Amino acid sequence: MNINKIKETTLKCGILPVIKINQSKDAIPLAKALIAGGLPAAEITFRTTCASEAIANIKKAYPDMLVAAGTVITNEQADQAIQAGADFLISPGINESLIKYCQAKDYVIIPGVTSASEAQLACTLGLEVVKFFPAATSGGVKAIQALSAPFSQLEFMPTGGINEKNLEEYLSCSNIICCGGSWMVKENLINEKNFSQITALVKEATNLVKKIKGVKL
Ligand SMILES: O=C(O)C(=O)C[C@H](O)[C@H](O)COP(=O)(O)O
Question: In the chain, what are the domains?
């Protein structure tokens, strides 16, 4: 998927659920729960070995759902994620060789930054959108606003420590496209197959986004 379409879809969603899935068979019920809650988007992290299988299962069942592969650290993971059908890739940090590898293959990758040097590297590499991770412990909205002064061309997807209490503060910042977070898709809820609770939490989260942004999801 191209970066403009990713920006458009994530901006509309306002939040991107960051998911750690331990069993690929939970992928489709989880995707169904997100869609039922009004959020057809997910970041499936490569923190478990079944990530690529989970991505493939979701994209087969719900081809229109926006699925990012998260915690992509190696070139091999980038290839696996795209082959599984991921729409784009997200890294916790910024690694020049991984970004160049993805750019050569036409994969969209959104790397994490927290400092001016990392933001500058992202700009030098021609990136428009970066993750800001870990957001809350790295200065939150104030740090993003400070980075946005010299790097006004960059747009941010903060993740880490964001929840229903501070979402408004982040989404009110004009350089922030959407926020990543796990508060509505906690690992224990997935492991317990408590998909109805996930749908309820996702509904609360999407209603909050609608209230903050005045958008119809
Ligand atoms: O693995 C990654 O690449 C990550 O993005 C790390 C965390 O899973 C997210 O930062 C979610 O953070 P919380 O919403 O605070 O739970």
Answer: 3-202 (3.20.20.70)
Ligand 1 close to Cβ of residue 140 (< 6 A): no
Q: pLDDT of the chain along its 217 residues, tens only?
A: 999 999 999 999 999 999 999 999 999 999 999 999 999 999 999 999 999 999 999 999 999 999 999 999 999 999 999 999 999 999 999 999 999 999 999 999 999 999 999 999 999 999 999 999 999 999 999 999 999 999 999 999 999 999 999 999 999 999 999 999 999 999 999 999 999 999 999 999 999 999 998 754 4
Task: List the residue whose alpha carbon is closest to atom 2 of ligand 1.
Answer: 71
CA of 1 to the centre of ligand 1 (A): 23
Residues 6+ apart with CB under 8 A from 99: 109, 111, 125, 127
Please give the model's pTM, rounded to 2 decimal places.
0.96
> Which residue's CA is the nearest one to ligand 1's atom 9?
160
How far apart CA 126 and CA 19 sit, in angstroms, is: 28
Q: Does the complex come out with an ipTM higher than 0.90?
A: yes
Provide the token pair at 123. 């700009």
Q: How many Cβ atoms sit within 10 Å of the Cβ of residue 161?
A: 15
Structure tokens given for 145: 């606003």
Sign of CA dihedral 31, 88, 203, 112: positive
Q: Is the CB of 158 under 6 A from ligand 1?
A: no
